[in-house]
What does this fold into?
Amino acid sequence: MKIFSLFLLSLLNLSVFANEGTISETPYNFAKIYIGHGQPYFLEIGSDHCPSCITMGKTLYTVKKENPKYNIMYINVGNDRTTAQQLKVQMIPTQIIYDAHGKEVYRHVGKLDEIELDEIFEKYNFNKI
It folds into this structure.
């Protein structure tokens, strides 16, 4: 029993640290409640099985850590085709920015680096949050 308990504990530790350094997932139904209520939102649309999406998740984690007030959400469409259809996403990773009124003002397909993200966040007034 002791060995089994240690095994379970080690699995738990691995699952906790597996997502360390990446932005956590937000269900789209939760995210859309906040969009359009006075602040811009950045949605990262991807999948946990996509290498480029994983890279973007790590980059966004760094950006969010440096700018905790930024509204950045990761929507995992890997197992949720309905959300991908609702957002009209055909390829991942896709980034969508909604302005303070909920209007889509930016869409990009592919990876972005930190410098590009900084410029985008400044352009769309994330620094005023």
Notes: The chain is about 45% helix and 15% strand. The domain at 21-128 is CATH 3.40.30.10 (Glutaredoxin).
